[in-house]
Amino acid sequence: MESKQLKWLYLGALALVWGSSFILIKKGLIGLSALQVGSLRIIFASIFLLLIGFKTLKKIPAQKWKYIALTSLFGTFIPAYLFAIAQTEIDSSVSSILNSLTPLNTLILGALVFGLQFKRNQIIGILIGLLGSTLLILNGAMNHPEQNYYYAILVLIASICYAVNVNLIKKYLHDLSPLSITTGNFMVLFVPAFSVLFFTDFFDVLNEIKVQHSILFIMVLGIVGTGIANILFFKLIQMSSPVFATSVTYLIPVVAFSWGLFDNEMLTPIQFFGAFIILIGVYLSARK
């Protein structure tokens, strides 16, 4: 299959997997704390990747490990905890929509830090995307007083972390295999994630049924939604561009919102309009 066709296949697969991640986080939070969800997500992904990709670590040159560490921090470690903490207060579908700002942040950081050039339509797209996210958050706060929409800021910070990650990969790790990058990332993260888990009450509540059910959801999230998905994502970045790869966030909210409907989540009409504005902004910013 040609790379032009293959990149769209990767994009669709990632949308399905990552779009399902938000509901898995929500289900995991039923029996686990946000820190436990973030830690277990990383630990399960680490074990899986080290089993299948340990031999590829020798392909990583010594001078590249500092970038492996940076991409693990921004691409996985920080966002894993931020999304889990945010979803203790806001709906999974709202979290997925705000995650759609990742391509805009990728573009902004690419221009400010990595030397990419802005175009007029991209600037317009950024402003439209920011307008949509403001509308989504403010209306959600008005109509859902039981939810603390200040936690939406954590999702915005996570999307900035993702933007840093894709620009670093494209500039400094483009010559490494996706499996090497991903395995290296999670080897770096295993000990910090386990340390965070150790200082929670996880081992005291491990025998509870609801905790065990939540662990199963996070196991799927870690292995499929984090481990396998990161391999596909890094491959997509290498065969296309950072902005195209992060355009997967066009489709993620559709999948996430569908899961949200099954779990009795609902957006207000104005929030729907805000989400639509965000996607228009992302589309304009991604056009060449």
TrEMBL record:
It is a multi-pass membrane protein. Keywords: Membrane, Transmembrane, Transmembrane helix. Signal peptide: none annotated. GO terms for cellular component: membrane. SUPFAM superfamilies: Multidrug resistance efflux transporter EmrE (SSF103481). The chain crosses the membrane at residues 7-25, 31-53, 65-85, 97-116, 123-142, 148-169, 181-203, 215-236, 243-262, 268-286. It comes from the Bacteria. Residues 13-137, 152-285 form the EamA domain. It is found in: Membrane. Its main location: membrane. Belongs to the EamA transporter family. PANTHER family: EAMA DOMAIN-CONTAINING PROTEIN (PTHR32322:SF2), INNER MEMBRANE TRANSPORTER (PTHR32322). This is EamA domain-containing membrane protein RarD. It comes from Flavobacterium segetis.
